[in-house]
Amino acid sequence: MASMRILGTGSYVPPKVLTNYDLVKMGLDTSHEWIVQRTGISERRMADPDVATSDLACEASVKALDMAGMSPQDIDLIILATITPDTCCPAGANWLQAKLEADQAVTFDVTAACSGFIFALNVAEQYLKAGTYRYILVAAAEVMTRTVNWKDRATCILWGDGAGAAVVTWADSGPEILSTHTHTDGKNGQDLLLPGGGSKTTPISHESVDKGLHYLTMIEANQSFRVAVRHFVESIKEAVSSNGLTVEDVDWFIPHQANLRMFHSIAKSLKIPMEKFYVTIHKYGNISGASCAIALDEAVRDGSIKKGHLVCMPVFGGGLTWGSALIRWE
Ligand code: UT7
Fold it and tell me: From CA 41, how far away is CA 54, in angstroms rounded?
């Protein structure tokens, strides 16, 4: 049956590694043990100062196109999920298009924070279903380390940089995206906030910088943790039940990589063995929307995902946003 199929996946993380010990050396009042115990993170990747989000996205996209056996000129639409675009205007996807020399492609960004990759896949699905575009490049890329306050130990330990990508089309063979689900709760979106540079605050000014409005802030992180787990659990249930399947049918869970303790809570709540979670947070931290796209690509390339496997990708992020993709790897 014709449906959204994955032709190729790709990912890229910058080579520079920032360990928990490096953070301690930078003078942060923390320890490797605390970070590992509370988050599961040992290290994260950090883009060099001259590297922008579209550079990371370009590397991941080239790999996805290569796996698909396609060139950038075959792509009709490029959707980039990011909250750290190179510039507010033009869109990050436009910079990516220029770097790929995919002049024929239409481009735009999707802003759904850590849920971005799944939201972008959901948008792609609508265009493919309608027959508007044939080949779509869905990328998710972030330079999160440029949004953090390195003096705020509660948040700066979490984030890293990187990109993931997938080429999708409407066809009747290949890895099948059985469903995508997306949800938003704008009323409660203020707990994960990057206020600076938007129209609500003064545009970038000495005052806004002095107030630290250009930093990503996390209010009530504890509360956010509980809300995230609830939405992860609901999203998994929604993904399987809408396809007439059960949680037990799933071979791999590839959630947004926010905190390893969340995986343990989800596993406990749904009685899922921890071995079914594909984990990258220990080495990359939280790369917002790119996290699950990178994990998917790594699981494909290292052979963890095999033919016939059912893969569930639940996500949760700022906004608030949450949802899932369910994929049968054929
Ligand atoms: O990707 C989007 C979704 N992500 C989220 O929604 C994030 C959800 N939240 C979390 O993952 C966790 O809440 C954090 C990892 C952010 C924090 O972990 P926690 O176990 O909730 O710690 P906490 O905020 O309750 O802080 C516990 C203690 C505090 O000290 P007191 O008040 O008990 O004396 C903090 O000041 O740990 C302290 N603390 C730290 N200590 C050492 C906070 N950060 C650190 C740190 N190193 N880096």
Answer: 25
